[in-house]
Amino acid sequence: MAIALEGPKGVGKTSTALQRAGTVHRLDDPAELAIAQADPTRLLEGERPVLIDEWQRLPQVWDLVRRAVDSQAPPGSFLLTGSAVPDPPPMHSGAGRIGSIRMRPLALSERCQASSVSLAQLLTGAQVPVTGATDVSLADYTDEVLASGLPGVRLLSGRSRRNQLDTYLNRVVDRDIPDEAGVVIRNPAALRRWMAAYAAASSTTATFETIRDAASAGHANPPSKNATLAYRDALTRVWMLEQTPAWIPSNNPLNKLRHAPKHQLADPAFAAQLLGAQASTLLAGQSSGPALPRSGTLLGELFESLVTMSVRVYAQQSEAKVGHLRTADGRQEVDLIVERADGSVVAIEVKLARTASSGDTKHLAWLKRKLGDRVLDQLIVTTGPEAYRREDGVAVVPLALLGP
């Protein structure tokens, strides 16, 4: 089987693949791309593993590699890295021949190197001990929201980092979408406004009509529904959006669940930059950017984005999926559901608070009553100083102490 490393630009796909590659073909080099266009089969040659970087520049590469695998190429012979899904996508999905691995910005445990509570152990259902202490404060979490998990960006600070993030976002609109995904954006300014409105909807289930209206406020000609759907699809193709899907359990014993996803950008720092948010405004509870309905503060929503991104990284290592649960009437919701292949779950609530109260556990308790032993563990992720288990068995864990 070949391996495709996927994800937004700057997460380290090429750097990771270069550590393993015997031969490298860089299709973002115009000279190499021209040669490959003349004779694509040359890309299969060389010491293996053969790395084909930015393969989407020549979409037929996907089917070439698939056929090479069908022709008994040894497992791991080919590595594909790409920052976009071409339009149209390859004719064959690659199922059984090309395995896809999603790479994301750095999770918080990769940044802090101090986790003491393992999601993999929570997924065993063994009610493992929950311990550990951290001095990571609310201000530190706010800084991490703004810092980005892109290795090259987080090395910067202040104005330099904000400029780098702004440049990154502008290039997504002006270059990456047309060049990498092959999608023509006729109104880049409108797309940028839509991205800002989408950022304001982080960690919510706001409808696309609500996001469109927020993006159009003060503008005479709002984009059509088809245009906004095109924006969403184009940004998804370049891995800038990663919605949290609604979780619907198999053999569903729960009534009237909503199917709307929660909105998330690939990195909460993108959302903060699009909204012009800074540490001082976030910590003061102030919002910025387009106005959308929200149940809490902007910092709370961006903190949930940081938790979601980190939990996705940890769940991926355990071959688990991540979703969210919300009933149609909104009375019951669980921020994150981590599901194993057998349908059992760890239920997670996210609280921008140092402590967890009994009221914070009510939705977790409801889910436990409904699903019984299928709920392997219950967890509240906080900004507090210590990890522990409550008397009711719910684990309370600061985000800085949660790891894979």
Q: Strands of the biggest beta sheet: in what spatial order?
A: 7-8-9-10-12-11
Unreliable residue stretches: none
Computed CA radius of gyration, to the nearest angstrom:
22 Å
Major sheet details: 6 strands, mixed
Structural class: alpha/beta
Average pLDDT number: 93
Mind explaining what this structure looks like?
The protein has 404 residues and is an alpha/beta fold. The protein has two domains: 2-102, P-loop containing nucleotide triphosphate hydrolases (Rossmann fold), CATH 3.40.50.300; 108-403, no CATH class. 37% of the residues lie in helices and 15% in strands. It is built from 15 helices and 13 strands. Strands 7-8-9-10-12-11 form a six-stranded mixed beta sheet, with helices on both faces. Helix 2 links the parallel strand 2 and strand 3 (50-53). The chain is globular and about 65 Å long. The protein starts with a strand and ends with a strand. The mean pLDDT is 93.
Which descriptors would you attach to this protein?
404 residues; alpha/beta; Rossmann fold; 2 domains; six-stranded mixed beta sheet; five-stranded parallel beta sheet; 15 helices; 13 strands; 37% helix; 15% strand; globular
Summarize the structure.
With 404 residues, the chain is of the alpha/beta class.
Please render the helix and strand layout as text.
Blueprint: E1 2-6, H1 13-18, E2 23-26, H2 30-38, E3 50-53, H3 60-70, E4 78-82, E5 98-102, H4 108-112, E6 117-118, H5 119-122, H6 138-147, H7 151-154, H8 158-180, H9 188-200, H10 208-216, H11 225-237, H12 268-275, H13 279-283, H14 298-317, E7 321-326, E8 333-339, E9 345-350, H15 362-371, E10 375-382, E11 388-389, E12 395-398, E13 402-403
Parallel strand pairs: 1-4, 1-5, 2-3, 3-4, 6-13, 9-10, 10-12
Antiparallel strand pairs: 7-8, 8-9, 11-12
